[in-house]
């Protein structure tokens, strides 16, 4: 989240007073608990019914890091499915932190029966941060995804490049590049990213496994006011398909988060 990103940015650039001021502003606004709700609608060019997903979350901030739970409810292909995910952002040592998550699905018709994820973030100096990670999705036969990323903090900006490699019969490589600009309060931001491969980069459900050859772009905005943060994003992708016309997909997401 924004607090973790700014904490790592300070360690990378300890003399950057703007980042320190942003971090103080964020600390003043942060309370121990936060809850959120997000809703996404996706339209596919060759399907009549849109795909929808509702996400509810609650998390707590501790000295050891952030820990939370997310609940997902999706409707796609005329099917419904639910998933519960437990996630954590613990700090391991000075300059090193991680992300870990475990998710479990209800009916396993859309989400994997089980999903595990882990990333380790390492500060490299001169504003750079490296990431290595692993995903395991259990739809039947397990699918593994290897993650590598490099980020650069520069003033109000965070630039990132990410790659996801899925080995196996459908061996694929997804890559993304993007940037985020933090606004005057140091918490709100606007971002853009472009990717080649899957729609999201992060494989989360069966639909992502079926879309491995798409160009996609996403714009997002997050605005914080007091204890409330309102966020939204819009995305579009074009998937190439053999012997068929290209398929277009548009996505609109909106969400609200409250600290208490």
Structure write-up:
The protein has 260 residues and is mainly β. It has one domain (2-259): Beta Barrel (Porin), CATH 2.40.160.40. Helix content is 11%, strand content 63%. Strands 1-2-3-4-5-6-7-8-9-10-11-12-13-14 form a 14-stranded antiparallel β-barrel. The longest helix is centred in the first third of the chain and has 13 residues, at 17-29. It is globular. The mean pLDDT is 86.
Distance between the termini: 16 Å
Instruction: Tell me the fraction of residues in β-strands, as a range.
Output: over 45%
Tell me how many strands there are. 14
Number of domains: 1
Biggest sheet, strands in spatial order?
1-2-3-4-5-6-7-8-9-10-11-12-13-14
Highest-level CATH class: Mainly Beta
* Low-confidence sequence ranges: none
Helicity range of the residues?
Answer: 10-25%
CATH architecture: Beta Barrel
Element pattern in H and E? HHEEEEEEEEEEEHEEE
Question: How would you sum up the global shape?
Answer: globular
Main beta-sheet annotation: 14 strands, antiparallel, barrel
Stated plainly, the CATH topology is called Porin
Structural Rg: 18 Å
SS content category: mainly beta
Write the SSE topology.
Elements: H1 2-12, H2 17-29, E1 33-44, E2 51-62, E3 65-76, E4 79-93, E5 96-105, E6 114-125, E7 128-138, E8 142-154, E9 157-166, E10 172-182, E11 189-197, H3 206-210, E12 214-225, E13 228-239, E14 247-259
Antiparallel strand pairs: 1-2, 1-14, 2-3, 3-4, 4-5, 5-6, 6-7, 7-8, 8-9, 9-10, 10-11, 11-12, 12-13, 13-14
Helix pairs in contact: 1-2
